[in-house]
Design brief:
Layout lengths: L1 H15 L16 H6 L5 E15 L8 E14 L4 E10 L3 E12 L5 E8 L22 H4 L6 E11 L4 E8 L3 E3 L26 E8 L5 E11 L1 E2 L10 H9 L3 E13 L2 E13 L1 H7 L13 E11 L11 E16 L10 E14 L2 E12 L6 E11 L1
């Protein structure tokens, strides 16, 4: 019943929305659906994106079933209270049965350079976490390092400022946000990455603020460069109700927290049908030795959270329809190389090579009309302890409007 009401609301909104994006910003900037809505005329606005996926493991000796999934369908609603004050929310249905809120923030324009934001927001780290719609990344699935290093879609509750300094061709974001959850009676961090410790704004635990910021430069035609930073501590339930003079209880709570400093660089360049992209992440974690001992299993086995994670990818794509006249669709073969290690270094013991992985993804995308795509690719993934790549064939439908 609730889903029917939501879809009915969308149909009503579609008749009221005006989808004319203003021309006040340069075309060299990149926009996700939420940003498009913020720069769209009209009081009530809608947008959406989604994907239907088929994933088939490929093995010469073992037969395996494929997986077919309505991976996600997302609806975005925006409302302008005035020319300066707007609200955006992003409602996600995953795997048909799960419902999440990915964004829900209020934005107020203070002047031409400064906008205040507050609510549930995407952490501005790298490319894919903010630009995660199907036609903004290559391949059926999102880049793998954006699953393990910066866990797309990573969002938390916070407040801060964003804006554009057009004379310098800069876009900036700076927020204080809630952090990853490291402990709520059981450990949430391990050597496999940070994904399971996202709080997603769902009854989140807050014990200390974290800073997230990004600067993008778009002053050269076709080129966009970004630098991101994230710093703070993870959150723990053990601080709740602790007497501030109880040193033993405070020391125990401190053992459940990990300090985090993440740095990212990214670049996107488009020229004559070529679309090149790359990004790099490095994350330093402190207090991991103490955390691994505190969260050890009952048999004494230590947790395996590393003291640093890193990863990068480089990607090249070319629109082969570019030279054809009167053809508005795009046919784009691409190839991407990824390498990441969720246990790059450790404070104690030796690193586990099973966490050191690389991948090659090669595929083809046909954008039949702007925002409507068919995708196919082959994914080859191998860890440092494997002799052969694990192969998966992927196909999917993607939409964004």
């Amino acid at each position: 019943m609730k889903r029917n009401l939501i879809f009915a609301l969308i149909l009503v909104c579609s008749g009221l929305a005006n989808a004319q994006i203003t021309d006040s910003l340069p075309g060299n900037l990149h926009f996700n659906v939420a940003e498009r809505l913020l720069h769209t005329d009209g009081n009530l606005k809608i947008g959406g994106y989604g994907g239907v996926h088929y994933n088939q493991p490929v093995d010469a000796e073992i037969r395996q079933n494929g997986k077919m999934d309505v991976h996600r369908f997302i609806m975005l609603l925006g409302y302008s209270f005035s020319n300066n004050t707007q609200f955006i929310t992003e409602i996600e249905f995953e795997h048909v049965k799960e419902v999440y809120i990915e964004q829900a923030f209020l934005q107020h324009k203070i002047n031409n350079y400064i906008n205040f934001r507050a609510g549930l927001m995407l952490t501005p780290m790298g490319i894919t976490n903010e630009y995660h719609e199907p036609n903004l990344f290559r391949g059926v699935e999102r880049p793998l390092i954006d699953n393990y290093i910066t866990p797309t879609t990573w969002r938390e509750i916070g407040a801060g400022f964003m804006g554009y300094i057009l004379p310098a061709s800069l876009k900036y974001q700076a927020y204080l946000m809630n952090g990853f959850l490291s402990y709520d009676g059981s450990p949430k961090l391990s050597g496999s990455g940070l994904r399971n410790s996202r709080q997603k704004g769902a009854e989140s635990i807050f014990s200390s603020p974290n800073f997230a910021g990004k600067v993008e430069y778009f002053g050269i035609r076709g080129l966009n460069l970004g630098a991101s930073v994230y710093a703070g501590n993870t959150q723990s339930t053990l601080y709740n109700g602790v007497n501030k003079n109880d040193q033993a209880a405070l020391a125990k709570a401190d053992s459940s927290v990990v300090g985090m400093a993440m740095f990212g660089l990214d670049a996107r360049y488009s020229v004559k049908g070529w679309k090149l992209k790359g990004q790099y992440y490095y994350t330093n974690l402190s207090n991991t030795e103490q955390y691994n001992h505190f969260t050890a299993k009952a048999d004494g086995t230590l947790n395996d959270l590393g003291s640093s994670l890193n990863g990068f990818y480089v990607e090249a794509a070319y629109n082969v329809f570019r030279s054809l006249q009167n053809v508005r669709s795009e046919l784009t073969p691409f190839i991407r190389y990824e390498k990441w290690n969720t246990q790059n270094t450790v404070e104690q013991g030796t690193t586990n090579p099973a966490y050191d992985k690389k991948a090659i993804i090669s595929g083809l995308e046909w954008e039949m009309a702007r925002g409507a795509l068919l995708k196919v690719d082959m994914q080859f993934v191998k860890s440092a302890i494997q002799n052969e790549f694990v192969k998966t064939f992927n196909a999917g439908v993607g939409i964004m409007f």
